[in-house]
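Async update (no meeting this week)

Hi team, since we skipped the sync, here's where things stand on the single-chain job. The sequence we agreed to prioritize is pasted below, unchanged from the tracker. I ran it this morning and attached the output directly underneath so nobody has to dig for it. Comments welcome in thread, and please keep replies under the output.
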Amino acid sequence: MQEKSILIYDDEKEILKVSRLILQDEYRQVETCISAENLFADIERVKPDIILMDLWMPTVSGEDAIDLLRSNEKTKHIPVVVFSAVNEIEKISKKINATALLKKPFSVVELKETVHKYIL
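Output:
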């Protein structure tokens, strides 16, 4: 088991549940949140080595959350993987300077490989 922490944001509880199940055996801590409203408090609590972020969430969108992360000296270094079913994911991912992207629906292998490749 790797001594790494993962923080996952998605407003779909099933995606969070499945992602946690897939990753929890390999990483020390996998935390999930249905909203990015408390983004900086979540990061302070979890101290993630990578963040997985859905683009379309209520209140604070994934796009806005990543903009906040990238404009903060304490968090701009954290790898952020965007995942979404939206057709323009590549364009949005580049615009917001995401580390990587995963198109929904993604496979177990794709999720594991992406996290393993980009985790600090």
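Quick observations from my side:
The helical segments are 13-23, 39-46, 62-70, 89-95, 108-118.
The CA atoms of residues 16 and 44 lie 20 Å apart.
Reply here if anything looks off.
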